[in-house]
Amino acid sequence: MLRVTTGLEHLLESPPAWAREGKLALLANPASVGPSYRHARDLMAEALPGSLGALFSPQHGFFADKQDNMIESGHGIDPVTGVPVFSLYGETRWPTDEMLEGIDTVVVDIQDVGTRVYTFIWTLTYIMEAAAEKGFHVAVLDRPNPIGGVKVEGNLTEAAYTSFVGRYPIPMRHGMTMGELALFFNERFGIGCDLTVVPMKGWTRSMHFGDTGLPWVLPSPNMPCEEAALVYPGQVILEGCNLSEGRGTTRPFELFGAPYLDTTKLINTLAPESLEGCILRETGFEPTFGKWAGELCKGFQIHVTDRERFAPYRLSLDIIRAAMANHPDEFAWKQPPYEYEYEKLPMDMILGSRALRESLEAGTAIDKLEAQWQDGLDDFRKSREAFLIYNP
Asked: Any idea where the Peptidoglycan beta-N-acetylmuramidase NamZ N-terminal domain is (predicted)?
């Protein structure tokens, strides 16, 4: 199998003038590695001696050691290079003048997982907006979308429900790479920063991560494997209710359940089309932390059998609809705060819509929910076309 080569590799093979002559800051985390598992920080320091002036870290920290949402990381000094490490998920999410002092280019080498609510893409937008204001250059070293670049799914975020888990109107599963999103955001939403995307070679839109030949390194503590990324565009919405999304287990997002869940009722309440491309295998689990820690949760593990037919957002919305229908007294929405929003329901922020949550409460069938967002999704498909770098 031919291996995909990343933007990081291409930068190091032939460093352009902006990398050779300027001072660089690097936004990275543990998944920012080359094919030999060596970190981008070390590879850049070796190939471009003296170029690194700062390191930036996204949510979960530079070493992804912060476990949950809204667990902030602090600043520090990198023991390897001696340069400062600045957190963009702590006292600020916006790079300050102090962080940018002497920096000519902020290099972004982050593994995304193809889902709107994964915050790394929104940290990128803050960097880009700061660049437009302060005049520095942004270079995105592109990496694969691990769940493919063809399928898109879900409603677009509504203006009243934008947040750090959805700053711009894109669907839950966007089907774009980090570099493509950067180009899309920069023009479509008027950021207008000085932007370079260093593309991959060998990646096509139909690829999933296992097709790339690249090593999987968990980009966040609860994303241990490609299988978790595949179900994440749906299962992440369980963060907005009292169903466990499997945090505190070895298979986060693949497992879900609750002590009160009647598994027979739930599986019989789901629409047949929601189960296309997957099997829900009944199981039990006890989370070691998070929701229902130490309690036996009755539920399922999602096994994806056909990635092309599987629709994670559709499945998880239907899981919530079924859980509410069968357990009206036990099911509950999570209350604020969630990702720096202290008033609106977390579920509304995750879905990007209060109306969609209310439709779930009303028991609206899954096909009708999909029909409600189809026009917006079609518009997104058309609008993204001009910014797609890679072939089908």
From this structure: 25-224
Q: How many CB atoms lie within 10 A of CB 358?
A: 11
pLDDT digits (tens, 9 = 90+) for 308-366: 999 999 999 999 999 999 999 999 999 999 988 899 999 999 999 999 999 999 999 99
**Whole-model pTM?**
0.95
2 against 98, higher pLDDT = 98
User: Domains of the chain by range and CATH?
Assistant: 7-217+383-387 (3.40.50.12170), 226-361 (3.90.1150.140)
Distance, in Å, from the CA atom of 322 to the CA atom of 377, rounded to the nearest integer, reads 25
Backbone phi and psi for residue 186, each to the nearest 5 degrees, phi listed first: -65, -40
Q: How far apart are CA 342 and CA 356, in angstroms?
A: 20
How many residues appear in the chain? 392
**Burial track 242-280 (b if 16+ CB lie within 10 A, e otherwise):** bbbbbbbbebbbbbbbbebbbeeebeebbeeebbeebeb
- The β-bridge partners of 139 are 107, 196
Residue pLDDT, tens place only, 167-191: 999 999 999 999 999 999 999 999 9
